[in-house]
Amino acid sequence: MTTPFADLETLVSAEVDALMGEPTRVVRKVAGQYFSRSADGGRADIDVIGVVDFNPIMARPKDQGQYDGFQPGLATDKIHVSYTASRFASRDAWPVDGDEILLLDPTRSGAKLRVTRTDPDELGRIVCICVPA
User: Fold this and answer.
1) pLDDT tens, residue order, the chain (133 aa)
2) Rounded Cα gap, residues 114 and 130, in angstroms
3) b/e map of 62-94 (b: 16 or more CB within 10 Å)?
4) Closest residue by Cα to residue 48 from 18, 87, 13, 19
5) Buried/exposed code over 112-121 (b: 16+ C-beta within 10 A; e: otherwise)
6) Which of 103, 129, 114 is nearest to 23 (CA)?
7) Which one, of 58, 47, 50, lies nearest residue 16 by Cα?
8) Is the Cβ–Cβ distance between 73 and 58 less than 8 Å?
9) CA 93 – CA 99 distance, rounded (Å)
10) pTM of the predicted structure, to 2 decimals
11) Residue 17 in 3-state DSSP?
12) For the chain, first and last CA: distance in Å?
């Protein structure tokens, strides 16, 4: 039996996907390889609706200190892709570090992202932190 709050999470997540979701494909990659990761035959690719969020940020060098003089920042995007957790069979099926997410919406012209981390948001969704691939 589910709780009223869990039912609310399910309804809200479905509405978020319906209003702002777009088709994506999670392409599974073999862990442990650093260059040109190959497809992971043990995990099937999955097409799933996700919410893609590009947040502009100013990236600063990690070693930037008070007396370093001029160190330029880099304008970039912090990219999140959010999925309804129940669209995946289990936590083991979530995207992992190194997997790729293809944006299938024609307006995105086949953009490709690489997952660096996946976290639950504690509201029935998971959030993949990505970088451009």
Assistant:
1) 678 888 888 888 889 999 999 999 999 988 765 555 777 778 899 999 999 998 777 766 666 556 656 666 666 667 999 999 989 999 999 999 999 999 999 988 889 999 999 999 888 899 999 988 8
2) 5
3) eeeeeeeeeeeeeeeeebbbbbbbebbeeeeeb
4) 87
5) ebbbeebeee
6) 103
7) 50
8) yes
9) 11
10) 0.79
11) helix
12) 42
Question: Of 105, 109, 77, 81, whose CA–CA distance to 95 is shortest?
Answer: 81
C-beta of residue 80 within 8 angstroms of C-beta of residue 113: no
User: What amino acid is encoded at 56 in this protein?
Assistant: P
Among 46, 9, 55, CA closest to 28: 46
Q: How far is CA 7 from the centre of its chain?
A: 24
